[in-house]
Amino acid sequence: MAAKPLKGSRSSLSTSSDVQDSQHNKPPLPPTVTFGRRTSSGRYISYSRDDLDSELGSSDFMDYTVHIPPTPDNQPMDSISQKVEEQYVSSSLFTGGFNTATRAHLMDKVIESEANHPQMAGTKGSSCSVPGCDAKVMSDERGADILPCECDFKICRDCYLDAIKTGDGICPGCKEQYKITDVDEVVENGRRLPLPPSSGMSKMERRLSLMKSTKSVLMRSHTGDFDHNRWLFETSGTYGYGNAIWPKDGGFQNGSDGVVEPSELINKPWRPLTRKLKIPAAVLSPYRLLILIRMVVLGLFLQWRVAHPNNDAVWLWGMSVVCEIWFAFSWVLDQLPKLCPINRSTDLNVLKEKFETPNEYNRNGKSDLPGIDIFVSTADPEKEPPLVTANTILSILAADYPVEKLACYVSDDGGALLTFEAMAEAASFANMWVPFCRKHNIEPRNPESYFNLKRDPYKNKVRTDFVKDRRRVKREYDEFKVRINSLPDSIRRRSDAYHAREEIKAMKQHRQKRDDEPMEIVKIPKATWMADGTHWPGTWLNPSSEHSKGDHAGIIQVMLKPPSDEPLRGTGDDSGAFELIDVDIRLPMLVYVSREKRPGYDHNKKAGAMNALVRASAIMSNGPFILNLDCDHYIYNSQAMREGMCFMMDRGGDRLCYVQFPQRFEGIDPSDRYANHNTVFFDGNMRALDGLQGPVYVGTGCLFRRIALYGFDPPRSKEHHPGCCSCCFARRKKHAAVANTPEENRALRMGDSDDEDMNLSLAPKKFGNSTFLIDSIPVAEFQGRPLADHPAVKNGRPPGALTIPRELLDASTVAEAISVISCWYEDKTEWGQRVGWIYGSVTEDVVTGYRMHNRGWRSVYCVTKRDAFRGTAPINLTDRLHQVLRWATGSVEIFFSRNNALLATSKMKFLQRIAYLNVGIYPFTSIFLIVYCFLPALSLFSGQFIVQTLNVTFLVYLLVITVTLCMLAVLEVKWSGVALEEWWRNEQFWLIGGTSAHLAAVLQGLLKVIAGIEISFTLTSKSAGDDEDDEFADLYLVKWSSLMIPPITIMMVNLIAIAVGFSRTIYSVIPQWSRLLGGVFFSFWVLAHLYPFAKGLMGRRGRTPTIVFVWSGLIAITISLLWVAINPPAGSNQIGGSFQFP
């Protein structure tokens, strides 16, 4: 390891050598990582600090390049160095991007407060005893020092490596040779980390060890067929994913083909993980019958309307008929997918028995559940408060799922230091919060929600120390909130102080260079500084070049390094707060990610951020399942992921692309004025879709199968027509069919048999040029398979295959993750087209789910007894309208794109296609709805009605249609659990949104399609109102928006029309009361639906002056009298006449 001076450039994991070698047709060199660290004594050693601390080109810096070979070498105590390598990697801030070197900056501290958890970056530890070095000593999972020599000489990782490589393995303390020992002999309660083979195998090949087909009696015992979908991973070694069913004599020798399954798997009674609960026939049969009856009545009514025009007002009749035909069509599209609603239930006891109970193939009872990578996305710390995001992170870290199988990735698309340090503070507080939750079985595990519970917190708590522990944690949480809330000021003050220091330093240098010249003001860019006194590589408070929201490097920081494989039990001294004896104090891996952004690149908003996380997580943890959450949606049920995993691991679960959970909201006003809970959709429409091909993806609270996001077809998929052929993975099909397949419908088909493995030769064109990423694909596919514990389970994996610990993080792995989140990585790939989250729509969630269903995947709706997730929703009228506008705009984009359900493949079921067609069509109803809302007013103004006269036939049709609608609502309430009040609120907001946001969405969509004008995206604010005394302060806040113009106009016109109609009828010689009553009835129907909107315009109750209502009435009366004066009724002005009503 040679040192070289830093020549004013950043330390790097540079690819320049690879580029030069590739130009000369030479194999690329192994990746190199340049770290930096400066000790307080002034010595620069192997991990030297880079130029982030803005020392203005100091020549004292030294770089030490650490070559990371593609396979581990056989150096003494390599397992120790691997463990310490992970420790240093987790304490380093990795940055890089397009045309920039990848740097690993060792963080002395991440936050101002002291980090006390051994997994956290910047954890304090003992200092190295080598003279001139005060680096941290190597430590284990508990933070205890690792002392490789029997003399207990304290030595850091770099000095230890120097002693091994350049000092002949001599201990600097006792001057004796280091002994070759395992980690067990150095770290108490440690476990041996066996070395992988040193042959030229890739990292993923070593992880798999050996993958080959094996004929199974288990599969043939009932069907007699050879199941080509079952891959068994077999190895007699100790490294990689080994076959848990490994015979003692080295092979299976029973059976004609030499391979049999243990009798336990064949004879053991099999229990399902999930059950389908059908809706009672007493409810569902009348519901379907009423739908049929109403469809027939609507058809007859429309036929009658067309056959009986109003000759006195043909224009009024024509508009009404056209609108009614569209409403009938829209109602059919909405109602048909509701014919087959179902409910589902899970059995968590069976899940625990199958995957976490000791058995013959899992002696220690280690979890055999697959890993889950959890994505949390945030973009703006001003609209999405860091405290909200931090609480979401804490609920994830405390979730009831195997700690070593969880990894949480926080995507900060704004690259803000505020978010970074808030996440670091959350990781620090998790050291106390997570063990507290595990010890006392706390629910919910969001501290803000838990401490604000209105119920008795001591109910069902039996441990005597609960009160003391809760009081201590509550005090710590209050301090945590103060630290989070003070971060903006703290960062600003710190940056100002460092900036002043830099200005003084620059002035001194300027004065030394120019003694005789007049003094000039030295201007230095005002940077944003981190807690360790270095420049923040992301967005600065005062934006500058390469440090603004749309222009900054990619950043990855492992806030919490991966936990140890074995449980780490607490002691009475842990955290210094309360006893944690027999409580697992490990924390899941937590990673901060901010993808690179540069001007001139389309970063594709949230969808692009999600795809960056997919790639980074595939390299760092590669969980076969992905749970994505918005920053304001936290885990309310700590076992939610287990419930979702029941569906994925059940029989046939390998054909599920995602499990969608319902969205539940907090902070909604008791009356739910603007239908924020949206229960009609989440408890009605989504349950109904679950009976078809599955619910749509709604953007958050969704557990994905990773390979489904990669664009693969589901296992055992059959060719229906040439529209679904593979374009990436080889398949024995007619190539002509592939050539005729529309590009957007081609899938990256996985091998369905052992004779047909994955062909990854074309993968770089689909996934990019990262071999790490491509090698991770078959691993994720295998790990996501259900357990092969029943003959009916196809495409399964053997028991115990996932009990092997994950590989340790190294610098090359994180550096590769940096490269895949760069702004250029997706160029000339299929990301956003057919791989990952789909681009081109502001509602990328619906499009992404549609593409999966279009390939033949199924999805499942998981409604848990205790809400799985909870979040916030905008209760302010303007914010709510803008949210609906964004959704509707995305639907219009879908309708005019290749994702229109009319173009779906035959793999999508008919009723599922109808549901997706309705998603794209529903905003267009606003055009007809607005016209229909003005018809009552036009009828009252003109004295005409939509029919010639209110005869019995029209009234009977109207009565039947209304009664069937009400009966359908009652039955829907019965099978969905929606309250009638919620159903009515949904109807009201349907009209409010339809006359405002939906119309604007149609106009914006048409502008984008016709004129190419891009649609602006407004981030929904998650922050609360300013009134601390009223949690519903936002509800009464009136913020003007142009979206309010159409509803206000409709209300005013209808109110005036009612006054005019009454005046006209009263002053007529022959009053037409029937026409008046018809127009007034429909006007009141419109006004009743717009009542919440009108209430929202009035602001807080009691604050609207009475004079407003007085003047409103006077203006209405005045206008109506003016109308009568301008256009008086024909004939005499005498008041009176006879009342006539048919």
UniProtKB/TrEMBL annotation:
Which terms does the UniProt entry file under GO BP?
cell wall organization; cellulose biosynthetic process; response to cold
Official protein name in the record = Cellulose synthase-like protein D3
Keywords (alphabetical) are: Cell wall biogenesis/degradation, Glycosyltransferase, Golgi apparatus, Membrane, Transferase, Transmembrane, Transmembrane helix
Q: Where is the active site?
A: D413, D845
Enumerate the residues binding Mn(2+): K606, D630
Q: What is the lineage of its organism?
A: Eukaryota, Viridiplantae, Streptophyta, Embryophyta, Tracheophyta
Its placement in the membrane is given as:
Multi-pass membrane protein
Q: Name one GO molecular function term.
A: cellulose synthase (UDP-forming) activity
Give the originating organism.
Escallonia herrerae
Where is composition skewed (Low complexity) in this entry? 9-22
Q: Where does this polypeptide localize?
A: Golgi apparatus membrane
